[in-house]
DNA sequence: ATGGCCGCTTGCAGCGGA
C-alpha cells in the first residue's frame, strides 16, 4: 500500500497535476493541503472520475485539506473527522478517516499545520497551541482506537532537524526550525509516531519544498517540511519512503512536491 | 547584500505563504 501527501498550493490551479500524478502513481491514499477552495467549488466529480473517493473541507482563500482514497481497492471511510474535535478553529486544516486495509485498520490524518509567520508572532502562538491540541487529540484517539494504526501526513511547516534545511545558518532559530516548533513535533513523536522518511538511510539534501523566488528549486535551496508519521504498529511494515521531485519540475508547479510512503507485509 | 514568486481577493495592492 502507498500513501502520499502533497501541498498543492491551490487545487484549482493544480488539479491537472494531481490527476496526472495519480494516473502515474495510483497510491491508495493521497492527502492534499492548501486546496484554497470552498466546498461548493471542490472538484469532486473529476477526482471520482479518476477512481478516487474524497473527503474534504475548505474555506475561502486560505488552507483547505482533502483525503483521497482509491475506490478500486475497496476502501470505505468511517469515523470521518473534519478538524480537531478538541480545538475550535475556523481555519480548515485537518481531515481524517479510518480505513480497513490489508495491514489492518488505519486512521489517516491529513494535516496542514499553521505556518506561524515569525517566531513570537500571534500566528506563531496559534501554531504552537494548534499542535499541542493535535497531540491531545491523537493521544485520545490512541486510547479510543487502540487497535487502529495512525498515519499523520501533511505539510508540518516544521523542518525536524538541520539535515532537513538547505542552509541551517540562514534559517537558524527562524520560523519552521525554531526550538519550540521542533519540541512540539517531538511531542507528537512521543505518542509513538515515527518520521517514515528517517526510518531509512537517505542521501543528504532531500527536500519537499523550494521557494518560488531566487531559483530555489534549481539551487536546491529547500526544506523538508512535508512529513509522514507512522505509529508503532505500522513502523515494522514500512518498506520505503521517498520524495517525488517530478511535479516540482512541471510548468506552473506547486512549491511543494509529493512525499510517498509504502507499507504492507511486515519487513523480514 | 538584498531580494527575487505565486495565488488569492465583494480584486488591479496587499496579504499570506515558507
Automatic annotation (TrEMBL):
Q: Where is this site: Interaction with DNA substrate?
A: 256
Return the annotated site residues (Transition state stabilizer): 157
Q: Which GO terms describe its biological process?
A: DNA repair
List the molecular function annotations (GO) for this entry. DNA binding; double-stranded DNA 3'-5' DNA exonuclease activity; endonuclease activity; metal ion binding
Chain positions of site Important for catalytic activity: 226
Q: Name one Pfam family in it.
A: Exo_endo_phos
Q: Where, by residue number, is the active site?
A: 112, 155 (proton donor/acceptor), 256 (proton acceptor)
Protein family membership: Belongs to the DNA repair enzymes AP/ExoA family.
User: Which residue spans traverse the membrane?
Assistant: none
Keywords linked to the UniProt accession: Hydrolase, Magnesium, Manganese, Metal-binding
Residues the record lists as binding Mg(2+):
7, 34, 155, 157, 255-256
SUPFAM superfamilies, alphabetized? DNase I-like
User: Does this entry carry the keyword Transmembrane?
Assistant: no
Explain how, and how many, cofactor molecules are bound: Probably binds two magnesium or manganese ions per subunit.
Q: Which organism is it from?
A: Lautropia mirabilis ATCC 51599
The Enzyme Commission number assigned here is 3.1.11.2
The cofactor(s) it depends on are: Mg(2+); Mn(2+)
What region holds the Endonuclease/exonuclease/phosphatase domain? 4-256
Instruction: Please identify the protein, giving its name as recorded.
Output: Exodeoxyribonuclease III
Enzyme class comes to: hydrolase
Amino acid at each position: 500500500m502507498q500513501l502520499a501527501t502533497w501541498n498543492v498550493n491551490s487545487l484549482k490551479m493544480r488539479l491537472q497535476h494531481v490527476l496526472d500524478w495519480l494516473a502515474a502513481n495510483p497510491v491508495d491514499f493521497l492527502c492534499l493541503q492548501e486546496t484554497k477552495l470552498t466546498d461548493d467549488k471542490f472538484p469532486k466529480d473529476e477526482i471520482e472520475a479518476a477512481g478516487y473517493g474524497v473527503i474534504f473541507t475548505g474555506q475561502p482563500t486560505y488552507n483547505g485539506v482533502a483525503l483521497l482514497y482509491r475506490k478500486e481497492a475497496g476502501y470505505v471511510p468511517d469515523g470521518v473527522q473534519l478538524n480537531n474535535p478538541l480545538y475550535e478553529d475556523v481555519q480548515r486544516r485537518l481531515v481524517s478517516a479510518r480505513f480497513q486495509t490489508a495491514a489492518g485498520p488505519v486512521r489517516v490524518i491529513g494535516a496542514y499545520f499553521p505556518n506561524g509567520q515569525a517566531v513570537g508572532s500571534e500566528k506563531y502562538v496559534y501554531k504552537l497551541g494548534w499542535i499541542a491540541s493535535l497531540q491531545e487529540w491523537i493521544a485520545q484517539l490512541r486510547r479510543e482506537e487502540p487497535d487502529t494504526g495512525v498515519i499523520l501526513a501533511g505539510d508540518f511547516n516544521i523542518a525536524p532537524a538541520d539535515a532537513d534545511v538547505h542552509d541551517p545558518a540562514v534559517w537558524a532559530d527562524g520560523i519552521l526550525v525554531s526550538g519550540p516548533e521542533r519540541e512540539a513535533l517531538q511531542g507528537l513523536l512521543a505518542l509513538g509516531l515515527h518520521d517514515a522518511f528517517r526510518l531509512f538511510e537517505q542521501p543528504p539534501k532531500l527536500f519537499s519544498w523550494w521557494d518560488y523566488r531566487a531559483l530555489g528549486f534549481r539551487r536546491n535551496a529547500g526544506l523538508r517540511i512535508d512529513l509522514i508519521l507512522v505509529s508503532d504498529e505500522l513502523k515494522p511494515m514500512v518498506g520505503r519512503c521517498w520524495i517525488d521531485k517530478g511535479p516540482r519540475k512541471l510548468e506552473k508547479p506547486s512549491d511543494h512536491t509529493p512525499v510517498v510512503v509504502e507499507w504492507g507485509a511486515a519487513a523480514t
